[in-house]
Amino acid sequence: MALKDLDLPKTQRAIVFPARGQAEVREVDVPRFFDDDGPWNVVLRPLAVGRCPSDTASCEEEFPPGFRLPSATQPVVPGHEQVVEVVGASVAAQRAGIEVGGWYVYDINIGCGEPDCYPCAVQKRPGIDCSKGTLFQGIGAANESWVLRQTGLRHVPGSYVYDPVERRGGIMVGRHTQLLPLDRSRLRGEADLAVLTQADALACAFMAIRGVAKLHAWEEGFRPALFLIGGGGRIAYWLAEAALAERGRDGVDLFLADVDADRLAMTAERLGLPQGNTYLVDPDDPDAFSTAAIRRGLAILEKGRAFNLILDAAGHKYVGAAATNRMFLEKVLDRNGTYITTAHGGIPGVEAGAFETVFANQRFAGALSPHRYIPRAIAYLQANISRYAPHMVITHRELDDSLAQKVRIAGKDPDIGRGANTYIAMWHRDPTWTQRSPDGGTTR
Ligand SMILES: [Zn+2]
Ligand SMILES: [Zn+2]
């Protein structure tokens, strides 16, 4: 059947960011910019959608200058970490192996795919490498012109869409090149779908860990590398998992720092970290990231050693330029170390690295854009799925105002992102999926 002949509802419900700092649930038109002969050639139904700080960042326009967010000209439908079912696929998509009814992780890192783009057309490196600027579907585009040309839209809607009649996920339009297959036989229940939405976040973590692994002397492995992860939330958790997966338990000593005692303890326990590897940060202490304070907080840290890698997943609310500069200058970070931030806009005011990056070998980097490692992340999540589901997932049976409320206040309310909320994922009920996990299913 041609895509244009699909029987789709006219409208659906969606979370919408109508303007900076605002979120609401609205009735919206079902998108119909799919094209049997063009690149936007699959119609998808989200089965599960993860909530991510990047949603909030796009709502608050926290991304760096030059990254165009469309909310000034067009409301945003967010949602960028999803497992989807294929509702319709063009002939070309089906010839490429996409199955109608199949379940996939959908990768939102999209390049133009046009014939005059060398990375897209010749090197087959889509997404972040596109010469015309990447589209992060559901978030925004680095350059709107090709997005507008292909879709007629400045913002390509994401996966926070819901069909209130059928009580399941709504409709989103995508490109078949972004679909990565799941092994459906390995999923035990609905909660496992929510776990697989984490492929995007875990891929970011693999990107960070593998990227620096190539550069470092500690690859020689004569003793464990020392990693300090700032934050005890979801991204910190996946960074730690990726570090353990890549280095092995004998290859890395992981230390966690966070301002929240409960979250710190919970995440350390889930990771199986030894006692004494956590540092409870006092956010009111201006010297919290001095060498002395960190050594006092981490009493088992070997004397004289500095961290090979510092991964900041706490956000610049807690780890601002002053703290970061200090970790460079006071050699909390090793002279050959790397500092990676996951803050969306980087850390304005970081300057201490200038001398060090020339005369020593310190590096400061960002860690977003995960597309190269999404297949690895999917394989890892599927292989380890019994460790995750369903205890770490809170599910929501439908889009409701309380979720919009969560999106709106996430990042401002200290209780959001705490405890079990750290692993929040939204789940769209699929009536055809009735199998339950052994202990009775989802948390809520
Ligand atoms: Zn995300
Ligand atoms: Zn391109």
List strands and helices in order, with pairings.
Layout: E1 11-16, E2 24-29, E3 42-50, H1 53-60, E4 82-89, H2 91-95, E5 103-106, E6 109-110, H3 118-122, E7 135-136, E8 140-141, H4 144-151, E9 161-163, E10 168-169, E11 172-174, E12 179-181, H5 190-196, H6 199-213, E13 225-230, H7 234-247, E14 252-258, H8 261-271, E15 278-280, H9 291-297, E16 307-312, H10 321-329, E17 333-341, H11 353-359, E18 363-366, H12 374-383, H13 401-409, E19 425-427
Parallel strand pairs: 13-14, 13-16, 14-15, 16-17, 17-18
Antiparallel strand pairs: 1-2, 1-9, 3-4, 3-11, 3-19, 4-5, 5-12, 6-7, 7-8, 9-10
Helix pairs in contact: 6-7, 6-12
Bound molecules: zinc ion (2 copies).
Q: What would you note in describing this structure?
A:
With 444 residues, this protein is an alpha/beta fold. It has 2 domains: 3-198 and 388-427, Quinone Oxidoreductase, Chain A, domain 1, CATH 3.90.180.10; 201-366, NAD(P)-binding Rossmann-like Domain (Rossmann fold), CATH 3.40.50.720. It contains 13 helices and 19 strands. The protein has helices at residues 53-60, 91-95, 118-122, 144-151, 190-196, 199-213, 234-247, 261-271, 291-297, 321-329, 353-359, 374-383, 401-409, and strands at residues 11-16, 24-29, 42-50, 82-89, 103-106, 109-110, 135-136, 140-141, 161-163, 168-169, 172-174, 179-181, 225-230, 252-258, 278-280, 307-312, 333-341, 363-366, 425-427. Strands 3, 4, 5, 11, 12 and 19 form a 6-stranded antiparallel β-sheet that branches. The chain has a 6-stranded parallel β-sheet with strand order 15-14-13-16-17-18, with helices on both faces. α10 (321-329) links the parallel β16 and β17 (333-341). α6 (199-213) crosses α7 and α6 crosses α12. It is elongated, with a radius of gyration of 22 Å. The two termini are 38 Å apart. Residues 390-404 and 406-444 have low confidence and may be disordered. One zinc ion (ZN) is lined by residues 111-112, 114, 117, 119-120, 130-132.
